[in-house]
Amino acid sequence: MEADERKKLIEQYRHGYEAVAEALLKVTPEELDSRPAPNKWSVRQIVHHLADSEMIAAARLRYLIGQDRPTIHGYDQDEFARRLYYDRPHEVSLELFRLVRQSTADILDRLTPAEWIREGTHTEVGRYGVEGWLKTYAGHAHKHATQIRVARDAAAKK
Q1: Domain of 80?
Q2: What is the pTM of this model?
């Protein structure tokens, strides 16, 4: 990956929280729990997913940098949503998402060329490296910010 592409992806990653926070502005209780479709997550569930996913992403990056050839474990996000009480208040999860992302972005800014090419093995996808990690997570929050807007729009139409 070229340095300018990496820099753009880091900036996208860094601004993910802002995209989510903007999508949540003036969210109502009805919008928080409305689902755009029966098999889709509510806004509240999306926020909890973002916090859980961000903690896992942060640990994955730290393993890739801090250990030689680590095993990166997959997880079932739908099981997390079912088992981790995604009906609870969302505010702490939103703040956790913000802080973990900020901490990880600070690490990304400092990585050396040798650290950018570090790799491990993902239990579901095989070879897994720092650059691939960045490609995965740079747009993750933005994707979910869009889902939040769709869910809120669906709630407003009901």
Answers
A1: 3-157
A2: 0.96
